[in-house]
Amino acid sequence: MSETYEVAVLIGSLRKESYSRKLARVLERLAPEGLRFDEVHFARAPLYNEDIETSGNLPPEWVHLREQVRRSDAVLFITPEYNRSIPGGLKNALDIGSRPPKENVWRGKPAAIASISRGVIGAFGANHHLRQILVPLDVLVMAQPEAYIGGAPTLFDEQGELTNESTREFLQGFMRRFAQWIETVHRGQERAAG
């Protein structure tokens, strides 16, 4: 990788010891050189409300979230599945960053999605629902490989380290591909602008 890219990380689960958080830390450690990670904290962000937007008195959590994503080069989403979808806090973060539409901070960002669950299908529903939500936001989501991580309780030790070698190999390949995707998107954007 010829450049260093800043990656905003959004973790769908707010729980301190969540599998999503553990997966996020593992992905950061397995990433190739050239990627720097910055978690976007959105737990305290008030629900998006257009009345607040037009009041001119924006919550500082909204302002910080927008600035953090705006200055990032890419976005990594890690999500559990809540009722066949993503958690409400993550959806609210997406709404905050997408408004007003002309100032959508997600637009043109290369992104990857990894989902994780206790069950065998690895939060497939949340992963695909998030992909649907990102389409109108103009987020450039990496198509392959898709990461649905199932059986979460069996994958980590007490320190949050990954214990399954085949999962480690897959995730390392996932992050290598994500780094390539980021570079590909940015080079294409530079050519288009040039």
List keywords for this structure.
alpha/beta; six-stranded parallel sheet; Rossmann fold; globular; single chain; 6 helices; 194 residues
Description:
This protein is of the alpha/beta class and 194 residues long. It has a single domain, classed as 3-Layer(aba) Sandwich (Rossmann fold). It has six helices and six strands. Strands 1, 2, 3, 4, 5 and 6 form a six-stranded parallel β-sheet that branches. Helix 4 links the parallel strand 3 and strand 4. The two termini are 21 Å apart. 36% of the residues are buried.
Brief overview, please?
The chain has helices at about 20-30, 50-55, 60-70, 90-100, 125-135, 165-194, and strands at about 5-10, 35-40, 75-80, 110-115, 140, 145-150. With about 190 residues, it is an alpha/beta fold.
What's the layout of helices and strands?
Elements (H helix, E strand, L loop, with lengths): L4 E7 L7 H12 L4 E5 L10 H6 L4 H11 L3 E6 L8 H11 L11 E7 L7 H11 L5 E2 L5 E3 L15 H29 L1
Parallel strand pairs: 1-2, 1-3, 3-4, 4-5, 4-6
Helix pairs in contact: 1-6
- Portion in helices: 40-55%
**What is the name of the CATH superfamily?**
Flavodoxin domain
The total beta strand count reads 6
Total individual domains: 1
Q: State the shape.
A: globular
The amount of beta strand, in percent, is 15-25%
Which CATH top level class fits? Alpha Beta
Predict the CATH topology.
Answer: Rossmann fold
Order of helices and strands: EHEHHEHEHEEH
- The computed structural class is alpha/beta
Low-pLDDT sequence parts: none
What Rg, in angstroms, do the CA atoms define? Answer: 16 Å
